[in-house]
Amino acid sequence: MNIDLIFRIASIGILLGVLHTVLVKAGKEEFAYITTLVGVVIVFGMVIGLISRLFDDIKNLFQLY
Amino acid sequence: MEVIQIVSIGIVATVLVVLLRQSNRNEFALLVSLITGIVIFTIILDKIEYVVETLNNLSRNTNIEFTYFSTILKIIGIAYIVEFGAQISRDAGENAIASKIELGGKVIIMVLAMPILLALMNLIIKILP
Questions:
Q1: Domain residue ranges in chain A
Q2: Chain-chain contact of B77 with A5 (C-beta, under 8 angstroms)
Q3: R_g over Cα of chain A
Q4: Which end of chain B is more exposed for a tag (fewer CB within 10 A), N or C?
Q5: Is B60 exposed, middle or buried (0-12, 13-18, 19+ CB in 10 A)?
């Protein structure tokens, strides 16, 4: 399993945090909120793929059909 | 050794989660802790596979009813998934959701354990004079 996934998601989170503050300082609150939302949706899409793979592994392992 | 790998991943992920929470990105902190749980589980997956295989062979040699053993295995799997989900939501501060997940898991395990209970009852009734 690739450990860099943890770092990728954490870096996206930090970047979005910084972007959010920058945009808020620039006076575009709604734009900042939208970008954070898009970031969360993208990352969540990746995470859901991993969760379904984990549950498939558990299903095969414990014969949970 | 996997142990060192697991511990280092856990520590690094904890630092990242604290960093994310501090810059009030709680949703990403939750996602990072979720991903860490998945990564650590996939590391130990083949170890659990080995344990399950040996238990399988053991139960087959001692001609125990195989359905009981597979039910036990299912219950362990369900317990692990329920625990995984409940801890994630408890981590995010949602104790109500966590207890609902646990309630659902308990009900499903109860349903799975019912046949064994009935078999036990029949056995006891047969033994009694």
A1: 3-62
A2: no
A3: 17
A4: C
A5: exposed
